[in-house]
Amino acid sequence: MKLLTVDTIDEARQKLLNCVTHGNTRRWISAELIETRFALGRVLATDVNSPEDVPNFRRSSVDGYAVISADTVGAGEALPVLLRLAGTVEMGKPAGVVLGRGECAYVPTGGMIPEGADSMVMVEHTEPFDGEIAIYQSAADGSYVVRVGEDVGRGEILLPRGRRIGSGEMGALASVGITEIPVYIPPSISIISSGDELISPPAIPGPGEIRDVNTPALVALATESGFRVVDVQSAKDDEKALEDAVRLAMTSDVIVLSGGSSQGAKDMTERVFANLATPGVFTHGVAVKPGKPTILGYDEKTDTLLVGLPGHPVSALVVFRILLSWLTKQLTGQKASPSFPARIACNIAGAPGRTGYQPVVLVPDGDGYIAEPVFGKSGMISTLTKSDGYVVIDMNKEGLEKGEAVQVFSWEP
Amino acid sequence: MKLLTVDTIDEARQKLLNCVTHGNTRRWISAELIETRFALGRVLATDVNSPEDVPNFRRSSVDGYAVISADTVGAGEALPVLLRLAGTVEMGKPAGVVLGRGECAYVPTGGMIPEGADSMVMVEHTEPFDGEIAIYQSAADGSYVVRVGEDVGRGEILLPRGRRIGSGEMGALASVGITEIPVYIPPSISIISSGDELISPPAIPGPGEIRDVNTPALVALATESGFRVVDVQSAKDDEKALEDAVRLAMTSDVIVLSGGSSQGAKDMTERVFANLATPGVFTHGVAVKPGKPTILGYDEKTDTLLVGLPGHPVSALVVFRILLSWLTKQLTGQKASPSFPARIACNIAGAPGRTGYQPVVLVPDGDGYIAEPVFGKSGMISTLTKSDGYVVIDMNKEGLEKGEAVQVFSWEP
């Protein structure tokens, strides 16, 4: 019975992980050292520890006067304390003065707090008075002082493995002078589409022919998911032609074959993978809707993952996302993108025994969102372009009930 | 009184929009035609209408038999209807047969429905029987048939202006054979940091010195926000040096000056902008926390926007995001990224009269999230790297109360 060999998503994911982490070359999780300034969007391959304290001197967070807090006890609007001005600290320079009791020093925002001082009083609460400084507020010990290492301590984890480098991370790395970082090398991917009905975009489709939608959509999704697209081919639905195309692509880490949607196309994909790869096909279908006709295989010798996707564009994109985009995030320690809590707008039937994916639009509603389903046969690309994301329907549930709490996942990987 | 000249965010945003949409060259909203395959991540500059129907023939969404539904009335598991097999449709080919009453034709998923037929019966509900086909299910008119133009109709808006091109959009454009699209040209930006205390990453900071954090962080954020970074300079806190740096950068659409945080640095930025630009500075501060010392100006002659950001990295990044990332999205018709509904974990004080931005971590909680504030003085980069995003505290509110519903905005622009 074919049906018995269908994997749940969790089973398929576990098998994929096993292949890749027990592969010969482990190239899916290899790293390279690159200059930080070129690292925007890359993913850290190790924790990065801070080599120094930030700040590495006691810094003022306001414009004002460094004081010894004990000297300001009782100061107020009506009764200021008078302190002797012992010096003025310049930005970027050593403080150049040590405070004694009864003294203060001017320090600009970001400037160095002089030795002896323990806190700052904002300039708004002071006034020059007869050669001295009148302090109109009592200072708590440590106020407006950024301590040595308060931002980041020496040896502390500054950024964890799996962190995607964005603007905050760039700032953090610069703050401790890290100019090179280890990042994961994006796995390479080949994308092959097959189907006698497919023509390439500039050509005009005749009766029965359709344009190849999956190739450009999958190239985009693979790129967004952190893969390096190294090869794009199209083949006719002919076993020999398909085998040649797959063999040619077996230098890449993953081959994605987006075949026809018919049972015949699925069987051909299975045979081609079985002929070329050892141990070969390990998943003959995944219990998802849309997307059941998914084939997964592995070739030990070349350490290549083989993925046969459904031919329908929406199914192909959903399955790529839940298996391959998931796999790269998992292997590189990336956090899953947060989902959006919402309430579903109407009843939706599930497919018992299969995990369902329903495209939805997020409609703001009070403090939250309503998730409105976008219905459409799975071949229809407009369900993708009109929706913001999708909700998952558990394989053990009959469906979703109107008003039920759901999580909406963005289409962006 | 200086305080009277501080703008609210809405006022500052409106003034920015006015400058850019009334500028001489309108280069912020100019477009270029590019090949679709190079358009990943770009933003559509016009609506794109479909030049044709998708599909452009009646397509089957299953493997099965095309039938005339009237012929199948009353068919069931116990009592099949027998139909004559009039032909077999091949993928990518014209149907090549016209059905008459009592006839059916085999059609694979994606194949063309023959003339005369009005619906499909899945192969699972059929059986070859003595040269004819036994149909075990009655078909509703139109079932499993994708009508001409059902996915996308000719002349319909396929994708709206402002849509960012991702995988679904790539698929949609390919489906109707659009190989070139008009996209917005990213505005150019120059980033200048000034401060006597700043040193560049490879150098080791001496007492009172700190590394330049803002430049790499702003380069990253500008890039992620869709700007083209064309110039990066650093200058000492000296009016002449700063003026030279800004003058040199006035060929770009925006100049961002991230100055020192002290009052002196803010005043110098104002003078430099006033000296170089006509009409000059139009916003002398923005009522936000962190980020008040923000200066906005405009030079008519060169059509350049001048932005003086606070020196503290977190403030600089927040202000860049709420003003400049917002501005590009606004001008190009992009939807704001959806926020995450959450409940705030504890009371947070606001700053009456100023809009507050509080970094938070999203912690899953039941069907939703708790937003846990990450506290830290605004100079601290670790508040950025440890948080998932931020909540906004209304300028007319005293703060947020524990358990209150909030929206969390991602740091990603």
Verbal overview:
Two copies of one chain form a homodimer. Chain A is 19% helix and 31% strand. With 413 residues, chain A is α/β, with parallel strands linked by helices. Chain A folds into four domains: 9-30 and 186-332, 3-Layer(aba) Sandwich (Molybdenum Cofactor Biosythetic Enzyme, Chain A), CATH 3.40.980.10; 33-52 and 154-184, Alpha-Beta Complex (Molybdopterin biosynthesis moea protein, domain 2), CATH 3.90.105.10; 59-146, Molybdopterin biosynthesis moeA protein, domain 3, CATH 2.170.190; 339-410, MoeA, C-terminal, domain IV (Beta-clip, Beta Barrel). In chain A, strand 20 (295-299) and strand 21 form a beta hairpin. In chain A, helix 1 (9-21) packs across helix 6 and helix 3 (214-224) packs parallel to helix 6 (313-331). The radius of gyration of chain A is 31 Å and the shape is elongated. Chains A and B meet through helix 2, strand 15, helix 3 and helix 7 of A and helix 2, strand 15, helix 3 and helix 7 of B.
What does this entry show, briefly?
The structure is a homodimer. Chain A has about 425 residues and is an alpha/beta fold. Chain A has helices at about 10-20, 165-175, 215-225, 240-250, 265-275, 315-330, 380-385, and strands spanning about 30-35, 50, 60, 65, 80-90, 105, 120, 125-130, 130-135, 145, 155-160, 180-185, 190-195, 200, 210, 230-235, 255-260, 280-285, 290, 295-300, 305-310, 340-345, 350, 355-365, 370-375, 390-395, 400, 405-410.
